[in-house]
Amino acid sequence: MNLQRLLVERIEHRILVGTVAFLGIMVLVGWIAINENGRMQAFQRQYEARAIERGAELFTANCTTCHGANGYGGARGPALNTPYLFGHDFLAETRRERLGLETEATLATTSEERKVAISERLVALEALEAPIRQQMNAAVLKGYNPDAPSRLANLGWGGGLPNFLYTTLVHGRPTSGSYWPQAMAAWAQRAGGPLRSDQLEDLTAYIINWDKGSEWTVEDLLAVQQFPKVPADGAELAALLANAEPRIGVETPVEEIMVGLEGLSGDVQNGQTLYNGVLACSGCHMNAAVAPPTEGTWTRVNEVRLLEPQFAGYTPEMYLAESIIHPNDYIVPAYGAGLMPANFGERVTYQDLSDLIAYIASQDQPIG
Amino acid sequence: MSVLPFPSFLDDIKEKGLKRALFEGINEVVERATAGMNVQDLREALRGDAPSRKPNPRLQPHADGFWLHMRPSYFHKSVTGLYPEFRLGWLSTYFVFFETITGIFLMVWYTPSPDVAYANMLSIMANVPLGQFMRDLHRLGAEAMVLIVTLHMLRTFLTASYKKPREFTWFSGVILLALTFFLSFSGYLLPWDQLALWAVTIGASMVEAAPPEIVGTNLNLLLRGGPEIGANGLLRFYLLHVLAVPALLFIFVGVHYYKVVLHAHSLPPGEENIGEDTAKRVPLDKRVYFIPDVLTSEIMWIGITTLVLIVLVTWFFHAPLEAHANPQSTPLGTTAPWYFLWVQGALKLGDKVIWGIVFPTIVVVFLMAYPYLDVTKSRRWAHRRLQLTIAFGMAAGFTVLSYMGLPEFGVINSADSEILHELTKEPAYNHVGVLLPVPYDELAPGMYITRQFQAEPGDEASVVSAFNAEIANGAFPVEGGRTLIQYLDQGQHLPVSSLTFTTAADGTALHEAMAEFSHMMELERLELRNGWGAVIVTEWQPGLKRVDVVLSWDDVEMRGGAPVLDANGDSIPRLDANGSGIRRVNSDHIFIHENAQYFAAPGS
């Protein structure tokens, strides 16, 4: 047998084969070592890509309900896919020039002629900015301030954006009910939430991946549905409230509410906007998991709820008005008490309530 | 005269001259280091010459040195060839040291805590030069060691080398086999990925079945460090893997090898008279001396084996690393490590206690006791028909049981979840979901439908547009009265307002994947009656696409995991209270980043 002869019988063969084997080992290990840097970089790149994929998965499962599938925000949470979060300044160029000129104008050494030229240039800059500001108008109405374009700067956050996102994910955000209907929960396991730290890193990587750097456009800004809400100035708020339509009030008995609703006709369109937007009803009333689903409410009220003895003499409108303003007066079987915010009385006017009822009536599809 | 109180090397030079003093100095160092062989003796040995002085200096290191005192100074010629031992025992020892050395490298970069273990793995792969290389070698060595040790036992059984006086050698060998299995198994958990967690969970759940209940429960708590494997469990497995089991293994390797040397390697069965054991009495002309023949042979084998391992990890084998361990999500198709598949297969036969505990115990006890039970004298093939039948019967039995341990056998998942899994699964065991390796550029955003592949050639576009019309008319509603669009938009958070399917472009990888998808639907046409599958690719983020897979079919009557068939061999639609059919839907989605580099699965 040749193998037997080569490997076993002659000592010269053994020494030769062994030497070749050790040389082969050295060559291969050397070759691997030379390629290590490239391999490690490739692995890093691939791993970062997969972290974004996992982050996308986690975001869809956990964050979409409040921040929107595309990250444009919604009634329950601010946009994340926005130049505001990444601090992109659409007016950066003119702003830089204007700041320079304004500083120069205040210097004692600046000549009067130069000052005239500066004020002319400042007018010209304003004209340059005007169309961009005009474009951004819709965003401004939603709370964006073109002159304070960075979320982190506005918050006075000292660290980078990844740290900001990670910290927010770990601890969540306490909030007042007057800003957001619900506080952001703490997501880290160590803070009592459901996610591991590597998952929070994946989520952070995913959110950071929305960054377009210098490629952000005003369209991106306009796509945003909800900007972060910042505490308003007390005096401004008082003035707003003084001019606002009166609210129903949380204590108003349902009979009085019905008197207030008389003569009002509900606008389905506006009701839908309230339902899915500001009031965020649809956030819970969506798939019968935490609250009864929107679809079929009217029929259920008519055919099931109103047969209960305590609702004798109720109309469906009355039942719905009570359910919205006094949610804990009656809990639909199989759902938990105290889950629905009881402050809608402070938040809606009679017209709003009428619109909401009209919208709910319009959603009356047969029960599946 | 030296300034030192004893004769120095300088005195030597003065006395003998530089050259001779140097040579004698070196000679003396070599002779001390080898415990008896000087330069000339070494040279003669390596040249294959006979020793020139007496007594034979090549026996000296065995008598005086520590390292060779445990090795015999000569072997019988008949046991030094490839046959009958195939170097299997030697290779087992090789792997003990190989695994120790590569393991120490990995220990430097590893912390046994669920918080950082997986991050350590990523760091070994991404930041440690030769980190992946060492990890691959360690993993490959572990799998190879299990295989080699098992083959070593099989060989010993076949040549009847367990017979008197080597019963205890065999007995200690069975212990070593068990330790090897457990070493490999305890290392499985350490990367703390999904593969690790679930393979070990399956393995450890066997312990829980040990009767009586109080024993099983407490053994399980001891091993896992809690009801579930967590921080304590990982630490325990780590300590078992790097400390307790290796310590036991080294002790038993010592015992085992001591017995091997004591009784000498058994000769091939045909070379002895029946009932004799002549291994210790080696005639002069049959002696093969350790120095130089066996020693050079072993060094050569170290080179060859290491080279083979390095070639394998360079081109053919990489240690798997799956997603981070997640106790909340059990991956479809979870299995024990391959060498425990036979237990998993046996578990499918019935009772957990009998097949998970009693049966493996019987196997181990049977193996340990075998040489004491089989007291027949002859080692000849012809006289051992029963024993050889037992050996091959057991080998066949374990193969069948291992096959039965695979998820393919006896585990019934619904056809829709199987297909979703096949299309979207993350890389594991060198397999990857059909859609993942589609190149990022060929993953054109759009909506694709398997109906395209049921059309006659040239007719695809009209079939797809007919399907679009059906959807637009509200066909294929989802349970609960929702439309497909509502299901996707609200249920799956995929922002869509209309469904317009197009044909996948010919010749692209996406087209091939869709064809594969269509083929899977076709194979399951009985369970997924009137079924279709859709793939929706959405541009999601810069460099990131979302891929949704949607399955829709008519619910059919099922029994025991298979559709009930009518007289024509067709499945029977299930009807609701109003007598109309029930349309079912299932979906899953994945995200694919342009740099994610999913490989094409080898051999799939």
Question: How would you summarize the topology of this molecule?
Answer:
The complex is a heterodimer of chains A (368) and B (604).
Chain A: H1 2-9, H2 11-62, H3 64-67, H4 83-86, H5 92-106, H6 112-135, H7 137-141, H8 151-155, H9 161-171, H10 197-208, H11 218-223, H12 234-243, H13 254-261, H14 268-276, H15 297-303, H16 316-325, H17 344-347, H18 350-362
Chain B: H1 9-16, H2 18-33, H3 39-47, H4 60-64, E1 74-76, H5 88-107, H6 117-126, H7 131-158, H8 167-188, H9 194-208, H10 213-224, H11 231-263, E2 287-289, H12 290-316, H13 341-347, H14 352-373, H15 385-405, H16 415-424, E3 446-449, H17 460-472, H18 484-491, H19 509-523, E4 529-541, E5 544-554, E6 558-559, E7 562-563, E8 583-593
Antiparallel strand pairs in B: 1-2, 3-4, 4-5, 5-8, 6-7
Helix pairs in contact in B: 1-2, 5-7, 7-8, 7-12, 8-11, 8-14, 9-10, 13-14, 13-15
